[in-house]
Automatic annotation (TrEMBL):
Name the record gives this protein: MerR family transcriptional regulator
Keyword Flavoprotein listed: no
HTH merR-type domain segment(s): 1-69
Keyword terms, alphabetized: DNA-binding
Amino acid sequence: MNVMEFSKRVGISPHTIRYYDKVGLFNETRRLPNGHRCFHNEDIAWLEFILRLKDTGMTIADIHKYAELRKKGQKTIAKRQAMLCEHSIKLEQQIKAQQKHLEKLNAKINYYQSLMEAK
């Protein structure tokens, strides 16, 4: 599928897909005889994983490092696992911090609610 079709399938703009390809997040992107990029179904699962990493706060630079390791194949599994474990720990810390913020916010909301009910 071309970039436009791929874009529609994954819900990401063609510009973003081209950017991700340009910075090397995809394996060697296949090209059609006319030079246009050609994506396949396995690229969908990979892009979904890229987006998941991005949505959980991993930087494009770190995603690029992961992608480079992935391109090198099975011999990099331990390094990829270590990267994901490190990211998981950071994410858990962020979730705990956000949970504390949410608790404080809810406490303030409840405080204001009690003030309004006292009137």
